[in-house]
Amino acid sequence: MNEFTVRAMLERATRFEPSVVEGRSMIHAQHQHHPWIVIVEPDMEAKLLVVVTVYEVSE
User: Fold this and answer.
1) pTM for this structure?
2) 36: closest CA among 18, 50, 49, 12?
3) In the prediction, which pLDDT does 1 show?
4) pLDDT at 57
5) Residue 24: what pLDDT?
6) Pairing of strands 34-43, 15-18
7) Which residues make beta-bridge pairs with 40?
8) Which among 1, 9, 16, 34 could bridge 29 via Cys, Cβ 3.0 to 4.6 Å?
9) How far is it, in rounded angstroms, from Cα 26 to Cα 38?
10) Which H helix or E strand runs over 15?
11) CA 8, 14, 19, 23 torsion: positive or negative?
């Protein structure tokens, strides 16, 4: 998985929800017709959204 693929997934996100880790969010997305989760955390100081991990959801 590369940066451009993750960016494309985030642009087409279908929904988001809080993660089990406080301050992080779970972004629901699709890649190659399969559901994926992108875990992100805002870095307020750097004004960035940090991708913590990306994984395919088993159906």
Assistant:
1) 0.88
2) 12
3) 82
4) 94
5) 96
6) unpaired
7) 25, 51
8) 9
9) 6
10) strand 15-18
11) positive
- Please report where in the chains the tokens 């805002």 appear, as a residue: 42
> What is the domain count for the chain?
1
Residue bearing tokens 């017709």:
33
Helix (H) or strand (E) holding 3: helix 3-11
User: Range of 33's domain?
Assistant: 3-56
Beta strands in the chain (DSSP E): 15-18, 25-31, 34-43, 48-56
Hey, what amino acid is at 52? V
pLDDT number for residue 35: 96
Task: Collect the ranges in the chain with pLDDT lower than 50.
Answer: none
Return d(Cα 58, Cα 44) in angstroms, integer: 32
Q: Which residue is listed with tokens 């955390």?
A: 41
Residue 20: DSSP 8-state: S
